[in-house]
Amino acid sequence: MALALPRHRRQAVPERDLADSAALAADRYSKEEKGDKPRDKDEKGLRWQLPFLALGLLRQMSASSNIIHDCDEVFNYWEPLHYLLYKSGFQTWEYSSEFALRSYLYLLFHMLVAGPTSWFYKDEKIQVFYKVRLFLGLISTITETVLIVALSRKYGKRLATYTLAMLCLTSGCFFSSTSFLPSTFSMYAVTLSSALFLLEKYASAVSVSAAGVLIGWPFSILIFLPVTIYSLIKGSFKKVFLSGLITSVSVIVLSVYVDYYYYGKWTSSIFNLLKYNVLGGGESHLYGVESATYYLRNGFNNFNFSFILALLFVALLPITLKKYTPDLLVVVSPIYIWLAFMSLQPHKEERFLYPIYTLICVAATAVIDTFPDIFRDRFSTEESFMVKVAKILRPVFLGLILCASHSRTFSLLHGYSGPLVIYKHLEHHEDASPGSILCVGSEWHRYPSSFFIPSYVKEVRWIDDGFRGLLPFPFNSTLGGTAAAPSYFNNKNKASDMQYLHDIDACTLFVELDLRRPHPSRGRDLSKWETLAAVHYLDRELSPAIYRSFFIPYSWHQKNVFGLYKLLRKIPQNNVDQD
C-alpha cells in the first residue's frame, strides 16, 4: 500500500510582490548592462601611476616645445620674474606702484624654482626659463592625475581613460598647461578642486578654490562657485566654511604684505585689479574688441569636435544626469557659466578660457561615453544594433578627435616657433661687440623675454614701426625699481615719446619678420645689414584657414605661405667703405 503524502497548495504570490520582483530584475539587468556592478576595493578604477606617467611625458614635451601665445605672459610675468632674479627686465604700467594691479605673490610662487635654478646655472638664463616651465608642467601633471583618479573611482575606468587621452593630446591642454599666466594657475586650481569634490573632500576643495581665486585670477571666482556652494551643502557646513575662510584670510594677508614689500606702500593688488575692471575705470576695450562668437570659434580651434560635445552635455542632461549623478554636472557647469559671462565682455583673449579647459575634456568624454545610452531601449532585454554600433564608435570618435588635435598642435608648433628659435641664436654670436643694442620693431609683441638675451647685449630697444599704444619700459632701479611710479606710464594705452629709440644707427642687432609684403624690410638692404639667422614663419593672412589651422601632410607645406623670421647684424660702416 502506497504511502499517501499530504498535498500542500503553493501560496499565491501577491501581484505587488511580482511587480517588485520584476522591477528588481529589470534594475539588475540595467546595472549589469551599464557596467555598474559593485567593484571590489582593489578594482576601484585606475591607479595614479599610469596617468602620472602619461601626463608627465606630454607636459614635459609642452614645456620644451611650447610657443609663447600671448605677449602678456612675457611682459607681465616673465619680465618681472627676470627682474627679481637679475635686476633687469621690462616693466608694464600694471606694475607701476601708482596702479599696482599685478600680484607679486604669484611671482614669488614661481621663485621657488626660479631662484635656486638661477644660482645653479648662473650664466645660462635660458635654462631658468625652461626649468620654470617644467615646474608648471609638473603642477599640471599632479592636478590632472588627481582628477583622473577621482573620475575613475566614481564613474569607472572608461570615462577616466577617455579623459586622460583628451588631457594628454588636445591642443588647448597641451599649450595652456605650461603657460606662465594666472589663468593657467586658476586652471590648476579648478582641476584639483573638482577632483577633491568628486572624492568628497569638500573642505579641501573649497580651500583650493580660494587659493585659485586669490593667488591666480580673482575673476575666476565664477568658475569655482558651483563646487563651493555644493560643497557647503554636502559637507559639514562649519568645517567647509571655516576651511575656505581661513585660506582666504591667510592668502589676502600674505598678498598685502608681499605687495607692501615690493610696491613700497600698503596696497592690495587683488582689490586694485577688481577696482580697475569692475568699479569703473576698467577700459579693457582699449586693448582690442572681439565679437560674441569669438570664444566659440576659439574653443573649436583648440578642442575641435570635443568642444561641441562638451556643449552637448546639457542637451543630453536626461541621460547624463541619470548616469553620472548631479556631481558631474556640478563639476562641468562652470563651462557654460564662464562662456556666457566672458562672451558678454568686449575684450576677449584666448587665455581667458584656460581655467575651464580641463572641464571641457571631462564633459566631452562624458558625452562620448553616453553614446550607447542614447539608443538603448530601457524595456528591451537585448542590445539593439544601434547600441552595438554606438559602442564601437566611442573609441573611433575619440581617436578622430585626438588626431585632429595633434594635427592642430603640430601646425602651431612648426608654424609659429620662429621667435623662440631666432632669439636662441643670440647665444651663438658672442663675437658681436660687448654693449650691443638689440632693436625690435613691429615684432615687439613676440619678444620671448629677457631670459633669451645674453650678457653681451647691453639693452633691448623698441623701434617705431607705427604702433601707437604704450609699450613696456625697463624697470628703473634709480626710481625705486618695483616701488617706482614712472611718469611715462598711464592706464589709457597712450604711447610715450620715450618708448622708442629714434636713432636706428645705434642698433647693433635687429629682429624682424619679413612677410614679403610691399613695405620695406631692413634685411633686404644688404649694404647695411647681414642676416645671421632666418627661419620660416607661417603667414597667417595669406595661408588658407584649414591648412594653417591643421597639419595635413604634404599639403601643409604646399598650400601655406611662409615669411622669414630674421636676426640681423649691422655691417660696420668702415667695412662698407672698404668694399
The major sheet is characterized as: 5 strands, mixed
Q: How big is the Rg? A: 29 Å
**DSSP strand content:** 5-15%
The total count of strands amounts to 7
The tally of helices reads: 23
Which stretches are poorly predicted, pLDDT < 50 over at least 5 residues?
A: 1-42
The strand order across the widest sheet is 3-2-5-7-6
Derived structural class: alpha/beta
N-C termini distance: 138 Å
Q: Assembly state here?
A: single chain
Structure description:
Helix 8 packs antiparallel against helix 9. This protein has helices at 15-33, 49-65, 71-86, 104-121, 125-155, 157-169, 171-176, 182-198, 202-216, 221-234, 237-263, 269-278, 294-303, 305-315, 317-332, 334-343, 357-369, 371-375, 385-416, 418-424, 545-549, 555-559, 573-578, and strands at residues 90-91, 436-440, 457-462, 473-474, 509-514, 529-538, 562-570. It has a 5-stranded mixed beta sheet with strand order 3-2-5-7-6, with helices on one face. 41% of the residues are buried. With 579 residues, it is α/β, with parallel strands linked by helices. It is globular, with a radius of gyration of 29 Å. InterPro entries: GPI_mannosylTrfase. It is a multi-pass membrane protein. One of its GO terms (molecular function) is alpha-1,2-mannosyltransferase activity. This is Mannosyltransferase.
